Recover the amino acids of this structure.
């Protein structure tokens, strides 16, 4: 059972409800330990005194604000708590905005907000239902772990969700801070824009997060397993070349045709076949062997096919050589 990482009260005008915050996400990234090459010994970090080189226990560590030239103002953790009494336990919604008015770049982390007791369930549900009906987000600030946060509170179907957000001065201006941004937006031809919109329409799908998963994490696990078993490991092909401006229209038109199933054996019709619940899917993936276009597969997929088919010398083959070898095996069969 998850534990709250913060508890306090949520205020809505003169209405107050005690709540707790719960982390809404989990990290499933594959984690590695650091080892010394050649020995396999673990590498560990210690907090040491810079002058003496001796390790310092956590209870003896305080915060220091650097004044320069080696001078610091020492601040105890309790002093930081004392300058925000009461407010560190309050999420006070002072205004409400349309959620689509907040640029995604401002969002940071997401937390579930839950009532701290069954007796507060009705007040909690009233606030959740009102936010859901108004389709707005409540804007508030609160303090957690010696840091103040700007937040947006919104309603999901069964729960209130709190997004911590970046302050305005933490979000960079792309035109001022990103050198690659052009001084002026280039002009786009109407025909190119219409074709690009057709491509977007053809590839449009209903959002379902279950349709997506971390393929890189799967490859990392496969790499670890292959090395454990002493098998060959093949890398993925690099990114495709950038589209030349001269070939832009041609690339757009071919993309639209392929998305409609005309270029790689996919289902006919807009955007490919539909999955469960009428959700539009993309063209059929590479598991379908009859009539498939091997040239559309990645080098890793081709290598796995070659391994299944027992193609000799596959680890030293280029992508094109793998395609030809697999075609030769198919013709021989």
């Amino acid at each position: 059972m998850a534990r709250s990482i913060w508890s306090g009260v949520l205020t809505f005008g003169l209405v107050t409800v005690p709540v707790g915050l719960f982390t809404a996400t989990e990290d499933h990234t594959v984690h590695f330990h650091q080892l010394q090459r050649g020995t396999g010994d673990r590498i560990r970090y210690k907090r040491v005194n810079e002058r003496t080189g001796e390790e310092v226990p956590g209870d003896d560590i305080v915060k220091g604000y650097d004044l320069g030239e080696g001078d610091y103002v020492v601040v105890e953790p309790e002093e930081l708590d004392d300058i925000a009494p009461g407010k560190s336990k309050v999420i006070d919604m002072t205004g409400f905005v349309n959620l689509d008015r907040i640029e995604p770049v401002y969002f940071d982390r997401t937390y579930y907000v839950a009532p701290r007791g069954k007796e507060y369930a009705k007040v909690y549900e009233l606030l959740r239902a009102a936010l859901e009906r108004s389709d707005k987000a409540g804007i508030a600030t609160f303090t957690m772990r010696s840091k103040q946060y700007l937040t947006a509170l919104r309603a999901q179907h069964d729960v209130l969700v709190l997004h911590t957000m970046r302050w305005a001065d933490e979000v960079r201006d792309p035109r001022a801070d990103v050198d690659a941004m052009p001084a002026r937006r280039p002009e786009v031809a109407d025909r190119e824009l219409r074709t690009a919109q057709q491509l977007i329409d053809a590839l449009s799908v209903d959002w379902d997060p279950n349709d997506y998963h971390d393929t890189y994490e799967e490859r990392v696990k496969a790499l670890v397993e292959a090395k454990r078993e002493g098998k060959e490991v093949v890398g993925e092909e690099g990114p495709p070349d950038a589209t030349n401006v001269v070939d832009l229209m041609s690339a757009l038109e071919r993309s639209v045709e392929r998305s409609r199933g005309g270029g790689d054996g996919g289902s006919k019709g807009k955007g490919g076949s539909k999955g469960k619940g009428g959700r539009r899917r993309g063209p059929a993936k590479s598991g379908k062997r009859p009539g498939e276009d091997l040239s559309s597969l990645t080098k890793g997929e081709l290598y796995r096919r070659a391994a299944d088919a027992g193609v000799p010398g596959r680890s030293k083959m280029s992508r094109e050589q793998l395609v030809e070898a697999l075609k030769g095996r198919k013709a021989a069969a």
The longest strand covers residues 15-23. Helices lie at 77-82, 121-134, 174-177, 190-202, 215-229, 248-259, 299-309, 319-332. The two ends are 56 Å apart (CA to CA). The beta strands are 6-12, 15-23, 63-68, 71-75, 90-98, 107-115, 136-144, 147-155, 160-165.
